[in-house]
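Worked problem 6 (solution included).
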Amino acid sequence: MQKLLQVKDLKTNFPLPRAMVKAVDGISFAIAQGETLGLVGESGSGKSVTALSILRLVPSPGEIQSGEIWFHDQNLLQLSEADMRRVRGRGIAMIFQDPTAYLNPLMTVGSQVMEIIQVHEGLKKAHAREKTVEILDRVGIPSPAIRVDDYPHQFSGGMRQRILIAITVASNPDLLIADEPTTALDVTIEAQILDLLRRLQSETGSSILLITHDLAVIAEMCQQVAVMYAGRIIEAGATEDILSSPLHPYTQGLIQALPRFGQRKKRLTVIEGNIASASNPPPGCRFHPRCPIPKEICSREPPPLIEVDGDHQVNCYEYVS
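Solution. The predicted structure is:
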């Protein structure tokens, strides 16, 4: 299957006065055309910084230190800023987790969608407005011809997220990056937003990088999954393989910590300890201070990437023969 996006040995750092925060430390993954890849891990694992790195929107003082980001046949890290602006929105677009922070409260929702259409397609205002109403209808905004002139505060949280998705898909991007798109929504609205993303993907053939901490969402939406811990990908492969036969102790801990139907009286399993510091990570395997089966070498040398079965990869000395 043709690869749409390939990230190779990406490193993104945040230099501080007394430390260097290695937010993303040498990760590699690929997304095929029409595929959904889930990036999962605890808060602070580097998921959102990975997304911002792909778009070259890492906030200062952060900087991409090294690596390659191939989109189609272009290394995005070698493009000029003008060329990169053309990639953003048209080629790659991002859905953020908090629409309130990214919707302009002083502009109607229609004008915010129209702005994207006019920038990327050069349509005149009347035609751009017609297309805006069509897009709002596609994402499930009721009475779109009327509500196109409403402001963000006049919509519910779930509807604001739909508007943010409308802005994102207005230019028909090849890759959607969805960063925790359902975090602040109740389960009913969450299911509606996920159904919307699936439908839009089916209609357009776009690929999706779905960033989440929710394994249930991964199971429902993704064909492939990569598990991040402290800036590194520690396990990756087909979603079915990862969820049914997790190999890394961290992945096993995440799955064991999931609440299960009918077990309300049992205490939930937890992963002891805290996620490793990005500014002062432990030597060797970054998970070894929390690992239930550490080896002596784990505290000295980072584990190699092991291909266990087909595309199932894991960074763990337990599988080094």
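Discussion: Residues 105-170 form one domain.
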